[in-house]
């Protein structure tokens, strides 16, 4: 076991602007081991720079700090100035966020690096200059840049100089704040390589603070997710990138173009409620909040080895789980096995696609999951409870399914009003039925005038009918919506509109979705996760990037190759 | 080309000042020589017919305007500023004789006030919000606002007239018998204390406020944060990182403030009847000695102009960012 | 009204005291005729009466009531400085906005003029012009305005230049907004705080300038400002060797200092408030 180098406990930073304190961080606690690389990710204003400044003790005068920051078991916050100055730069150094202002404009780069050597290593002017020049070369600058003034360097060169400055005293811990922001892609990757190599060479501990996922991913072993001054999740970087427990972490990672190469970009939905409590910082944007989230702040607790989470719900909830589902049909040729030992899960707010050709068993599986069809064996758990006895379709907050054919799934002689309110009427739910119908019609971007409500379904186009079907499903406020090839009967333009609408509603309202399609490209654009089905079995599952980059099953490989061939045809 | 633009700028500015000086008497409402007579219409006793004749000759009023102007420029180039009727001497000679009183007064005040103002401003900024800072800031605002001659008058009546610590007028004891040179010098210093103290007090506020402000500004800069993070000694942070960045603008400010100091000096000299240029300016107003008045105006204005230019240049020389483009 | 309350609340203690002093002086000036028990320009008592119940600040060499002179002086000094401050700020503001908006030759000319006028030391030029033009209230006002519009013009020009680059101005211009629309709807609102602060600063500068001129004997002898009262007092031969200065010299002197300081502290506060926005 490596030794702990820096340990932070209950770190609270408040800024005083006038009377009321503004909390920058709340009860932050973490440790950095010797030689370890640790990342803190968070959006601007999350308090990440405040943490760095607190470690360096360079917070502005209007900030108050409490808690413990112990470096090699000594509390930095309690040291006197003299002791602190001995540790600064000599033991803990920092690469500041790159800006012209971060270096003194009237002093040369070399002087600003060398002065730290003279201060901390008691070197003579000449010795300090030599070592500085050596480091300038190490970071890819030239000896002559010693005499350069900051304004004479480009952004990338300045970043290199800052790295040289940070490393020249050979610190045990290096803090890097937004190492790569404001750099172009090429320079950025050079800087990342440089720091990664230097870290291996000197084996210092690195605390990397950034809002850029790719920077974090390429430099850190361990990652912490910071939101509005609180740590929400902690674990190995690779694991967090693969599987997030906290809805915020998931949103953050879903918003990254580096990670979502194929998928359309969807941000974390804006806050729905303005009420803020002393509870979870993510409360106002969370889609699975419960009463306690508002009242009480969740603490960061261990889930498994080296994985921590702060969430009252224990992370993103599982909505539905199917285990070993099998189903056979009889036809004239005998028994057909439509589903064979299919297992899958879907989490709250997740969008998964079930991809497969016709006859692969995907529709059968969908019908079993929704409870439309009875299974032969296996089990379906809705919110961790066996759904056998539940009538998932006839309750609010259950499961709804929209079928492939909009022409046959709605009674043509119904009015729009009758069609949409049918599930509510059947189950005698809600009093203000007509109001609710109007609201949902507008959500699916249909007219909601009295005239439209009275129109017969047979006078509507296919696209409109599918929207009505969507409204009918959504009016039951489902936790999970299953959409089975809902666009296959529609023209391409209508399909695009409906899919966009569906994804928007899903993102905003936070329900989970299983989308069933034969079109891999559509699945890539929409899904957090893709399951590929072939001949009744789920043969592959993973996020769009892993499926595309590293398909395991032969059928998946064929599917991708077929797609590529199509592309070539189009663009040759 | 652009490098020499500032030289052109100076020439234009000087020309404007010179031309202004030329036109002021000529644009006077009514006949300028009416004013040679006293307020109640009597000819002032110290002007003879001959004096007025000389006067008219200097101003060349009967010739066409352009010819007057060229004539005036020619004389200026030869440093001929005209003839003072009251003192019966060349204006340039008179000015020279008074400058030896004014220059030390102004120089000592500027040196002291800029040094003290900068140091206090630096300390104030470093200890911002402390008792020292608040007290200093309060006092300096007051000093900065009270007009110089009022402070002078207060000193005059308290330290001078009431407590008799310092002489109340003049630059030296008239008809004083000094045995040694040292005695004479001490006498002159004794006379100079109140005027220079007054002038220093009125200019210190400006330097202090400017220094404090720019130091606070510098303190908020990221490179100071960097310097602090680097664990440098406070001494190094203050003198190397802060002062170095603050000194050029402060020096510039000192040179740019010269105009205000000159104004202050005119008033202060009059309060203490100090025999400098300002005192002479006021007596030339009383005696309507226009050539002398204009000569003093021209000399002070051009001096201020030159110092302003030097101030601008200093800023450029000390800042590497402004060098080579 | 709410805004005034808000501003008042943001004033520091010094600012509030200063405001009070300023208002008192203002009232003294406006109602000088009603408050004064004696005419300011007539002999009402013996010479050099020391301050007492009838003559709060005593009398001068001719036996004129000094308190009446201070009251009347408040009227002239504050009236003059308000007038000069407002007129020159308005001139400066208009010039600054026009120059910044139109740029080009107009702007270059303005900058040159501002440069020259800033370099020329103000007191000597004040002295030389007013000594040639002769001491009358009208001339003093004209000269002071001529020299005072520069600093607001410069500040407002640079602020307007900065505003001109704001995206919402660019958008408005893209929609076809012209000079008048931009000035009325966008510039003025942003500039009001600066204009107010500039007026207040000019008030104190004008009082000081006028007092300086009067002190040098260039004041209008028919309008007794505080500066002129002080000038007369200092001109009295034996003033240094008697006790009279304690009321004759100190009264106008302290009046000037008090008002100037009040205005200064007020403008420091207001400037801070204007910078932080409401």
- The count of strands of chain B amounts to 2
Distance between the termini of chain B: 13 Å
Work out the strand percent of chain B.
under 5%
Structural class call of chain A reads: alpha/beta
Counting DSSP H or I runs of 4 or more residues, the number of helices of chain A is 19
Helix share, percent of chain B:
over 70%
Mean pLDDT of chain A: 89
Evaluate the radius of gyration of chain B: 24 Å
Outline type of chain B: globular
Residue share in β-strands of chain A: 25-35%
* Unreliable residue stretches of chain A: none
Question: How would you characterize the overall build of this protein?
Answer:
With 572 residues, chain A is α/β, with parallel strands linked by helices. In chain A, α4 crosses α5. In chain A, the strands form 4 sheets. An 8-stranded mixed beta sheet of chain A has the order 6-7-8-3-9-10-12-11, with helices on both faces. A 6-stranded mixed beta sheet of chain A has the order 18-19-20-15-21-22, sandwiched between helices. In chain A, strands 2-1-4-5 form a 4-stranded antiparallel beta sheet, with helices on one face. Chain B has a two-stranded antiparallel ribbon with strand order 1-2. Chain C is mostly helical and 278 residues long. The two termini of chain C are 13 Å apart. The interface between B and C is large, with 52 and 40 residues.
